[in-house]
Write a structure and sequence with these properties.
Length: 215
């Protein structure tokens, strides 16, 4: 009888341990779910804080799989009602890059770069009426994602503005042969960095309020 009790107690302890381990395992899997903070969060914040515009590049080309990662990062951005009202054009032709340089007096670095991505709004996918303008925010979110992904992969990049400057929109549309419904927001110039500028410290507590303006 004593022996039977011992076996029963041992089995009960083993069952308890197994259940505990299973619960811990489930919690562990839960920690790997999207949205959880325990996934190299500090590295992500570090990447955001150390990004800075890079305007000088080596001649090294950017491989197709890297370009695809950048495009996927862009498309991972949030958009109003998840409309994804965008179109991305990756430009790695030297001639096209040089032509694009002529569309913006502040985008001469395009002549030196191996890659640019034009982030465009697709008005056929944008919302109707006043909400149509959300395309600018949607495409801006995509642009920042691409800038951060480039930095995370050791590349350098800079956002060059197109929309809402009419002449630039017209000039970029002509170079990239854009149909009427596609509006270029910006051209992101990308390459392997040939300069290492210090990231700017932009933290200004006076630009922040808590609960009410000015408090
Ligand atoms: C809407 C927008 C348009 C920009 N246009 C240009 C541009 O045409 N040429 C350029 O060299 N940089 C351009 N920039 C990059 C800014 O000059 C740069 O982000 C800013 O000086 C802050 O520096 P940082 O990116 O190193 O933090 C643009 C940035 C934004 C957000």
């Amino acid at each position: 009888m004593k022996q039977i009790t011992k076996i029963a107690v041992t089995l009960a302890i083993m069952a308890g341990l197994t259940m505990n381990l299973m619960a811990q395992n489930q919690r562990g899997q839960g920690q790997r779910q999207p949205g959880n903070r325990n996934r190299g969060g500090r590295a992500v914040v570090e990447n955001i804080m150390t990004r800075t515009s890079i305007r000088s590049y080596t001649s090294q080309a950017i491989p197709a799989d890297t370009i695809e990662i950048l495009l996927k990062a862009g498309m991972a951005a949030p958009t109003a009602v998840n409309a994804q009202p965008w179109h991305f054009i990756a430009i790695n032709s030297k001639e096209k890059l040089a032509e694009l340089a002529g569309t913006n007096p502040n985008a001469g670095m395009l002549r030196q770069a191996p890659l640019a991505i034009a982030v465009c709004g697709n008005m056929n996918k944008a919302m109707q009426g006043k909400a149509r303008e959300y395309w600018v925010q949607d495409c801006s979110a995509a642009t920042e994602n691409i800038l951060l992904a480039a930095h995370a992969m050791g590349l350098g990049a800079v956002w060059t503005g197109v929309y809402p400057t009419d002449e630039r929109v017209a000039a970029v549309s002509k170079v990239l042969k854009l149909p009427e419904n596609i509006i270029p927001l910006c051209v992101i110039v990308i390459g392997h960095p040939a300069e290492r500028p210090q990231p700017k410290d932009k933290w200004k507590p006076e630009n922040v309020s808590y609960n009410e303006y000015g408090k």
